[in-house]
Amino acid sequence: MEVKFDFSPFLIQYKSGRVQRFMGTAFVPPSLDSCTGVASKDVVVDEGIGLRARIYRPSRRAVVGGGGGRLPVLVYFHGGAFVVESAFDPVYHGYLNALTAREGVVAVSVNYRLAPKHPLPAAYDDAWAALSWVLENARPGAGGGEPRGARGRAAAAAGRARCRRRGRGCGGLGMGAAEDAAGPAAEDAARDGAGAGVRRRVRPVAEDAARVVARLTAAAAGA
Known about the structure:
By secondary structure, the protein is α+β, with helices and mostly antiparallel strands. The chain is built from six helices and eight strands.
């Protein structure tokens, strides 16, 4: 099989289009974690592009012990330089179980699409669509996090459209291994502008990563 781009020890892309990854391919299913009491489940954010996420919820005892009420929402983007790893990797799964229990948050780990099969800005679009989906489902009466057919697809599509209009400013949401709370409550963050602050903080790092991946993508295309 002819090689198009050798990015060892991470991956090899073949001229047939097949991508062979050498790390970040392990999968662990959602579960009720016996150590922390955190429950996780997988949801579909956008059926059309296969965008998924894993939601982590602290135990009921932890919520009541923390005073009850509404929980902060944390949106997490796994590392891997946009080319390897996934939200369902055992390392990230264990980390988010521990983080959710320790901080008393609802965590949403986004499984964005990976290059080179899905070159940038696909991961940026996915990240922004996922954040839009979280904001939509965090509103009172939204129904608990599962996309509701056309509504779920429309929220994701609207997120991608906003990302394209905003251009480079959306890059912050595609930063690998970055996590930020979407606010004390997700819709409160949108209202008080915290989301914009998150984008300003992570944008320089995300743009550096984007330039590296762009060079790799260009090298693969010219190989």
